[in-house]
Amino acid sequence: MATVREILEFKEKVWLGDTILCGQISDGTRFYYQLVDDVLYLKFQDYETFTRIPGKLFRIARVSDSILLHTRESKLYKVQFIKNTPPQIVFFRDIAENEHYGLDGLLGRQIGEDHSYYRISDEPDKGSIKVDLTEKELEDAYPIGIHRGKIVYQRRVNDLRLSIRHPSANCIIIEHEENLANSRSEGAHATAFLGEDSSPLIYLINIEGKIMIFNTETLGVAALKRKPQPGDTIKNTVFRWTNIVGVHDGTITVEGRTLQKGCAYCVYNASLPVDIMGSEAPEAQRSPVSDKDPILKLVSLLTGKEVDMAQWGKIAHAINAATSNATREEVKKDPVYAKMAEMQAMIDKLSNKLSDLDRSSQQKIQELERKLAQV
User: Fold this and answer.
1) Do 180 and 34 share a structural domain?
2) Containing domain of residue 359, as a range?
3) What is the CA 31 to chain-centroid distance, rounded?
4) Secondary structure (3-state) at 366
5) What is the DSSP letter of 55?
6) 361 Cβ partners below 8 Å, 6+ apart?
7) Whether residue 153 sits in one domain with residue 39
8) Which of 41-50, 86-95, 282-291 has the lowest mean pLDDT?
9) Residue 348 belongs to what H/E stretch?
10) More confident of the two residues 34 and 369
11) Looking at residue 312, what is its pLDDT?
12) Same domain, yes or no, for 307 and 228?
């Protein structure tokens, strides 16, 4: 289990409106966007634009330096933020009938027996990655992102241990027991996942502000939280974290909601530690698959070559499948396991209700604001 280090010091606070969302490009420059009826407000550097959306909006997705508008007419429009250039909505492509919307800026499609996923900002024929695991092998894991040509799945488990593994050539599975931060509304999808191809690190954030970090190369894991400050109260601290905006030059930017200014949203940033994965002993940081490192070293010594991790993932997956199925079934029959599963289901149900209440409150606040504006 990775020890949670409460060391992050959030020094900047930028207030957002109830419906304003935030992103950032690769150099850390932020952009803001807001949907008002069928008009999209964009702010980037000194540019501010108001543009009518060409169609009825279904979803907004943010991927890296772009936002994608998915309309009910099955069309995708794209806004890319480029320095010293006013942002504008441009047609990207039509959505095919066999495509379906996934979480966190993903699209998926089915062709025959093959199922694949890709970023909503990619062309399906170029960025599509085939799912090379069966439903039984995936169990209840679901895709949350794309990283370095692999589909990233997450699975919630009744275990305090964080883990990451490569069970196949095209898939990564992350396991944790956290209730991840989620979108503010059905129309604007903020994300709890961040994974840029320029870095081996994947970041997740839960609703309590715990930032989980997974290294796809070393399979190391870490967990960070905000450092408590003198004078902290429920009124002046974040009670619900909603989004990872980005990571740049050793600084992480996140979004949360406070009880101040009518439960306003804020953007904060904090410097990440130089030893981001922590200084614990390797055994305390490794996930189950990485415990086989001695075998990898032995194979390297015998062959004189580095072991291909994708191939090792297939071997490890076969070993796990052959040795753990019976044990897993036995665990599921345990009455303690059943009770834990029941409690987890209750927690999930309560979390969903809180999300619904959150959306309902936002709608009521917006309605009141409209009425006040008419007075």
Assistant:
1) yes
2) 334-375
3) 19
4) helix
5) S
6) 263
7) yes
8) 282-291
9) helix 335-374
10) 34
11) 46
12) no
Q: What is the dihedral sign for C-alpha 167, 174, 100, 79?
A: negative
Tally of CB atoms within 10 A around 190: 22
Measured CA to CA, the distance from residue 35 to residue 48 in angstroms comes to 13
HEC secondary structure over 127-183: HCEECCCCHHHHCCCEEEEEECCEEEEEEECCCCCCEEECCCCCEEEEEECCCECCC
User: Both tokens of residue 133?
Assistant: 């695991």
Instruction: Give the mean pLDDT of the chain.
Output: 78
77 in the same domain as 54: yes
Domain end residue (candidates: 286, 313, 343): 286
Q: Whole-model pTM?
A: 0.73
Identify whether residues 94 and 204 lie together within a single domain.
yes
The answer on pLDDT for 325 being more than 70 is no
Q: Please spell the DSSP secondary structure of 221-248, one letter per residue.
A: EEEEEEPP-TT--TTTS-SEEEEEEEEE
**C-alpha R_g of the chain:** 22
Query: Rounded CA gap, 144 and 169, in Å?
Result: 17
E strand or H helix at 119: strand 114-119
Kindly state whether residues 233 and 136 are assigned to the same domain: yes
Residues 302 and 366 placed together within one structural domain of the fold: no
Q: Which helix (H) or strand (E) holds 296?
A: helix 293-303
For residue 362, the model assigns a pLDDT of 52
Q: What is the pLDDT of residue 240?
A: 87
Q: What is the pLDDT of residues 231-281, one digit of tens each?
A: 888 878 888 888 899 999 999 999 988 888 878 888 999 999 988 876 433
pLDDT band at residue 290 under the 50/70/90 scheme: very low
What are the angstrom distances between the C-alpha of 215 and each of 105, 166, 189, 290?
21, 11, 25, 11
| CA 142 to chain CA mean position, Å | 12
Q: Which amino acid is at 289?
A: V
Amino acid at 358: D
* Tally of structural domains, the chain: 3
Mean pLDDT of 324-336: 46
302 by DSSP, 3-state: which? helix
